[in-house]
Design brief:
Order of helices and strands of chain C: HEEEEEEEEH
Helix content of chain B: 25-40%
Radius of gyration of chain B: 21 Å
Shape of chain B: globular
Largest sheet of chain C: 8 strands, mixed
Distance between the termini of chain C: 97 Å
Strand content of chain C: 25-35%
Radius of gyration of chain C: 24 Å
Shape of chain C: elongated
Chains: A mainly alpha (263), B alpha/beta (277), C alpha/beta (156)
Structural class of chain B: alpha/beta
Strand order of the largest sheet of chain B: 6-7-8-3-9-10
Number of helices of chain B: 10
Oligomer: heterotrimer
Helix content of chain C: 25-40%
Strand content of chain B: 15-25%
Number of domains of chain C: 2
Largest sheet of chain B: 6 strands, mixed
Chain lengths: 263, 277, 156
């Protein structure tokens, strides 16, 4: 009997922890969003963050996008050629990129490159009392620190995803047309016939907006919530990458089902 | 404020209670911090002196009791009023809390830029004046990572007085400093207090340095005020505990040993301990 | 502030690159150019079996793309599938006795609607119904029929 009660208590503690975190995370998000309009008067803060979140992530996005596109071209070709359908290579490459790989891989890379950096930065600001210091200087850290980073991530993610997809299509083109000899005209025309701007491209953009929101939210909150020690910050950084990746993959399924599926 | 101008007490703490878990940080604390004086709050490490400063700054809310700063109860102010009041309080954090992505000049300029719109030339003059008063005018282009601990604290001090506050709170200003920068800081705190007409609150456990500049001292332990008075009065105290603390005696009312089972029994009983396998 | 300038310029380039990428995806990768919802007209046709026809499947005349399937639903009154297709407005001279058949592009390719113009004097307009339709060929049925006839031949 005692053992059962212990188990129940453990479960209760776990549930309280999870709900507590969710609740505080939501409050944090709410607080950040409420302060957002004040950024109109301080665009410099946002530009600075777009630089560190977006521009500095660009290189890894370009390189990965190119390689992912090239691999898609190669794999797609070897599968399609068995059916004599290698002309559809453009469709395979572009649909995979625009609908799925563009938003998802970008979000995963973003979580690893920019998200972890955000968490570490904010955790360190907390550990070195910079956040407290701002509060004591009557500067709201939500306006000064969180909101600009949040907005920057939200803006940067769809841009990165679009660049990833575009570079990937070019990579697929290089492999498919230049190297494997798929017909140049068929590659583009089949692609254009099958890829719809609203259905496919815009849905991909919507996905990356959602992923952007979730990734920065997790990254910022983990930093904000981190135990202000070296160990605490490193744990929080790990959690950011793990949680963001899981959230992105899980949400991707939900969004795909809503957008393209008949579930 | 004009109604309180004549009031000699700037910060009035009454019946303050604050617990961190079951650990008392403040358990019925009464304090008066007088205008224009350097008031020290001392106590062994781990008694929550920093927390007390955060309570005064309105960053934490007490379980009971009130903190009146310049006649206003800081914990019932609206956010706007609180921020307005904080502009008139400076705080020097233990680590300096400099913004790591800005250089020294911009760090000192930060609160000024945030709260006033000054032409760049006037801002520059103002920042250089503040830096001159802590002796670091020449270091304005350095980044915080290039500063020694003592210099970082002096920059933070320049920043704390950037908005010409009515009071400055110092959180452990002497910890981890070499004798020279310790001496510099001790002098600076006293000099700035007198030259700018500040009110200073120094939280510290460095007895010698603190007593040399304080006008009035509170000694806290386990949430209670264990003793108060001018440094001379404290030196003449006959409380055993205060003597131990002020003279740094290893054993006394505060035992050298962390509470545990009897030494001899502990050595015999090998099987009860997790380190015994 | 040379550093700030560098940062702002690179952010500007970054945003511009994003726009170019999106433009590329819109114009080159997807069909935003070819069907820019230029308000074509919609006609309907009823089929017994649509096979693998999908919304946005092509509608062709003589193999030339003239429109796309805009909706497919089942008409419970007629027990047939109702297919709506949007024809681009520049192809407005199709006779109203045009026939619609569902074809398959290649053996395993996608299915599309092929229109065969008739000889009527009046043209199709918004809301017209194509009377003459031919359903999709379902591969299993054809194979089934073929085997069945072979079996009958063998029995003779």
């Amino acid at each position: 009997m005692e053992k059962i009660l212990d188990r129940l208590q453990g479960l209760g503690v776990l549930a309280l922890n999870v709900f507590g975190r969710l609740g505080r995370g939501s409050l944090f998000l709410f607080h950040t969003l409420v302060i957002m309009p004040q950024l109109w008067r301080r665009p410099g803060l946002v530009v600075r963050q777009i630089y560190s979140v977006g521009v500095l992530t660009l290189l890894i996005i370009l390189v990965s996008g190119l390689f992912v596109g090239m691999v898609l071209g190669l794999q797609g070709y070897t599968t399609l050629v068995d059916f004599g359908a290698q002309e559809s290579l453009g469709v395979v490459v572009s649909l995979s990129l625009v609908r799925e790989l563009g938003p998802v891989v970008t979000a995963l890379l973003f979580a690893g490159r920019a998200g972890s950096a955000l968490t570490a930065e904010i955790g360190l600001m907390k550990a070195t009392e910079q956040l407290s210091g701002m509060e004591m200087m009557a500067v709201d850290p939500y306006r000064q620190v969180f909101a600009p980073r949040f907005l920057a991530g939200f803006i940067a993610m769809p841009i990165l995803a679009a660049i990833f997809s575009a570079v990937g299509v070019i990579g697929g083109y290089v492999v498919g047309v230049d190297m494997l000899g798929v017909d140049f005209g068929a590659f583009w025309s089949q692609m254009q016939a099958k890829v719809d701007f609203h259905e496919d491209v815009m849905n991909g953009v919507v996905k990356s907006l959602v992923f952007g929101l979730v990734c920065v939210w997790i990254a910022l909150y983990e930093g904000y919530d981190a135990t202000p020690t070296a160990d605490g910050v490193s744990r929080a950084t790990t959690r950011t990458v793990v949680h963001s990746s899981l959230a992105v993959l899980g949400l991707d399924f939900v969004l795909t089902a809503l957008m393209f599926g008949d579930l | 404020m004009p109604s309180n101008k004549g009031d000699e007490v700037l910060v009035k703490i009454r019946g303050l209670r604050f617990f961190r878990g079951s650990l008392p940080i403040a358990d019925g604390v009464d304090m008066d911090i007088r205008r224009g004086k350097v008031t020290a709050i001392m106590g062994p490490s781990g008694t929550g002196k920093t927390t007390l400063l955060k309570l005064i700054g309105g960053q934490l809310y007490p379980d009971a009791g009130e903190v009146l700063v310049d006649g206003k109860n800081i914990h019932t102010l609206s956010r706007k009023e609180l921020y307005a009041l904080r502009r008139r309080m400076g705080m020097l954090f233990q680590s300096g809390a400099l913004l790591t992505d800005l250089d020294v000049f911009e760090n000192v300029a930060f609160p000024i830029r945030e709260h006033m719109t000054l032409p760049e030339s006037m801002l520059r003059t103002l920042v250089l004046m503040k830096l001159e008063s802590v002796g670091l005018r020449g270091a304005r282009d350095l980044m915080p990572s290039e500063l020694s601990g003592g210099m970082a604290r002096r920059v933070a001090l320049a920043r704390a007085i950037a908005l010409d506050p009515m009071m400055v709170m110092y959180d452990e200003p002497f910890t981890g400093q070499d004798p020279i920068s310790m001496g510099v800081l001790v002098q600076l705190i006293r000099r700035l207090n007198d030259a700018l007409g500040l009110t200073s609150i120094v939280v510290s456990h460095d007895v010698k340095e603190t007593l040399s500049i304080a006008d009035y001292v509170y000694v806290l332990s386990r949430g209670k005020v264990m003793g108060q008075g001018s440094p001379e009065e404290l030196r003449k105290t006959d409380s055993e505990w205060l003597k131990q603390f002020l003279q740094g005696l290893p054993d006394g009312p505060v035992p050298f040993h962390y509470p545990g089972p009897d030494y001899f029994d502990d050595l015999i009983n090998q099987d009860v301990d997790s380190h015994a396998s | 502030m040379k550093q700030t300038r560098y940062m702002e310029i690179s952010v500007g380039l970054f945003v511009a690159a994003g726009m170019i990428a999106l433009f590329f995806l819109a114009m080159k990768v997807s069909n935003l150019t070819s069907i820019s919802s230029d308000a074509g007209y919609t006609v309907t046709a009823y089929f017994e079996n649509i096979g693998g026809l999908k919304v946005r499947s092509p509608v062709t005349v003589s193999g030339v793309l003239v429109g796309r399937v805009s909706a497919i639903d089942y008409d419970p009154a007629r027990f047939e599938a109702r297919v709506s297709m949007e024809i681009e407005s520049r192809y407005d001279n199709l006779p109203d006795d045009t026939a619609a058949s569902i074809f398959t592009a290649g053996l395993l390719g996608e299915q599309y609607i092929g229109l065969e113009p008739g000889a009527s004097e009046t043209n199709l307009k918004e809301g017209s119904e194509l009377k003459l339709t031919q359903s999709a060929l379902v591969l299993e049925q054809i194979i089934g029929q073929f085997l069945f006839s072979k079996a009958q031949e063998g029995a003779k």
